[in-house]
Design a protein that fits this description.
Order of helices and strands: HHHH
Largest sheet: none
Number of helices: 4
Helix content: over 70%
Shape: globular
Length: about 80
């Protein structure tokens, strides 16, 4: 069973939020295409977070996107 500790989960969320911009994460479709369905990114994340399961990483990715979207809405 893969273990994804809270510190690693927070590192992933921070990493992703720093990667988002108005082009690659403009909406859920762009986010999915550029992050959730990007095999090269998944390979890189697997190297950076080897103990994380795919479902835990997907959940953290979705949480990062939702938080980023919410923060953008408060700025606009």
């Amino acid at each position: 069973m893969a273990v994804f500790d809270e510190q690693s989960r927070q590192r992933l969320i921070t990493f992703l939020q720093q990667s988002f911009d108005d082009d690659n994460a403009a909406d859920m479709e762009c986010f999915a295409r550029n992050f959730l369905h990007n095999g090269a990114l998944w390979d890189r994340l697997a190297d950076l977070f080897p103990t994380a399961s795919a479902s835990a990483m997907r959940a953290a990715m979705t949480e990062a996107f939702a938080t980023w979207q919410k923060s953008r809405q408060t700025l606009h």
